[in-house]
Amino acid sequence: MASEATVKLVAAQDEVAHRIERRRANERKAAEVSPLTDAQGLVEFACECKKVECERSVKVPLFVYRRMVESGDQYLLQAGHHAFTRYRTIVTAGLMRIEERA
To answer: What distance in Å separates the CA atoms of residue 88 and residue 34, rounded to the nearest whole number?
Structure first.
């Protein structure tokens, strides 16, 4: 059987892979010439948290998402979700949060 440390390591690697996959999908959507927006001009992006089972989405203006990505170490999240164990919240608005690694 796998040791507890091995199980934790595999789980952590899965969380990182999940967050990276969601970020790449969001970046592809943000790079579209004209991404689909709602009546308020918001684009729906996937939550970039570390929960492998998360299927939540967050709506923000396209320019907000693009600036967040340009910063290098900020992540778009559903309220209550986190990208890292240690984090600092940059922006909170309704059910949307932007966090960076602390």
So the answer is: 31
Of the candidates 90, 18, 98, 12, the one whose C-alpha atom is nearest the C-alpha of residue 55 is: 18
Q: Are 97 and 89 in contact (CB under 8 A)?
A: yes
Helices 4-31 and 62-71 sit at what angle, rounded to 10 degrees?
Answer: 130
Residue 1 — very low, low, confident or very high, per pLDDT cuts 50/70/90? low
Beta strands in 24-86 (DSSP E): 42-46, 57-61, 74-78
How does pLDDT run across 60-100, given as a tens digit for each residue? 999 999 999 999 889 999 999 998 888 899 999 888 999 99
pTM: 0.84
Of the candidates 82, 86, 85, which has an alpha carbon nearest to the alpha carbon of residue 98?
A: 82
95: how many CB neighbours lie within 10 A of its CB? 15
